[in-house]
Amino acid sequence: MTGPDLLAVCDVCLQLIDDGDGAVWCRPETATPEPPDEGQFLIEELLAAPDTRARWRVTHEECAPGEGYRIAVERIRTWPAYLHWTAHLMGKGWLAGTNWADLILDTLDPASTQPGIRPRTARDLGHRHVGD
Fold first, then answer.
1. Coil, strand or helix at 16
2. If we measure between CA atoms, which residue out of 131, 12, 23, 121 comes closest to residue 68?
3. 116-119/6-9 β-pairing
4. Is 93 in a helix, a strand, or coil?
5. How wide is the angle at C-alpha 48 spanned by C-alphas 47 and 53, nearest 5°?
6. For residues 83-108, b (16+ Cβ closer than 10 Å) or e, as one string?
7. What is the residue extent of each domain of the chain?
8. What is the pTM of this model?
9. Phi, psi values for residue 104, rounded to 5°
């Protein structure tokens, strides 16, 4: 066995999270629904607006115990598991009010230095089309 496809790096201490020691989590009740489209916004207004989406966190239990909706790190350590969780979460009405898509895109970015869910082996996708 070669180990998991994905590693979990704590948002707080920036160390790897072992199985049983942490979770990927968010508090969906803090999500702000998308405002209704009531016309044109100035680009400056959009850029200045705070990000009110509920933030997914990846943390050790001892650094910041996960509150709200939790996925134990050992349950999201492979690409198929990550895809499964994404499909599962798409059925939740509150997912659009979170930054789950940002978490996925950051995981896929070979140049990212952010904590979170990281591939064991970074692969440069070279901005090719999906499936290449």
1. strand
2. 23
3. antiparallel
4. coil
5. 85
6. eeeeeebeeeebbebbbbeebbebbe
7. 6-32+51-119
8. 0.78
9. -65, -50
